[in-house]
Amino acid sequence: MIELANVKAEGTMSVQEVKATHEYLRKVASTREPVRALSEFVWNALDADSTVVAVDFVRNGLGGIERIEIRDNGTGITKARADRDFTDIGDSWKLSLNRTAGEKRAIHGKEGRGCLRFFSLARWATWKTVYA
């Protein structure tokens, strides 16, 4: 399950239920390379003009990884874009762009499925975003 908490001035929140076939998820999330899965999120942050990206592994009392937190200072996700991008898997705002708006970086990934790579690491994910 993907839960997207979309925070803005009025405090609205959007929870999206992503539906995809088991076969599609198997293809998208099948990576035995956790670094590759994490790199998708770092690329997404860079595509959002982030200049700082932090990846933290929060450990439990036994030393195992309890959760992975990725934070960045990118442009955020508007509610309208979240509603579209997280329910229409395979569609991406990046399709019509070659460079990011602020930093003018080359855009990485235009297939609209990189966010599902988390399934190779975990059973659920939460996105929290703030935007202007």
From TrEMBL:
Keywords: Plasmid. Gene3D superfamilies: Histidine kinase-like ATPase, C-terminal domain. InterPro entries: HATPase_C_sf. It holds the Pfam family HATPase_c_3. This is ATP-binding protein. It comes from Rhizobium ruizarguesonis. The lineage of its organism: Bacteria, Pseudomonadati, Pseudomonadota, Alphaproteobacteria, Hyphomicrobiales.
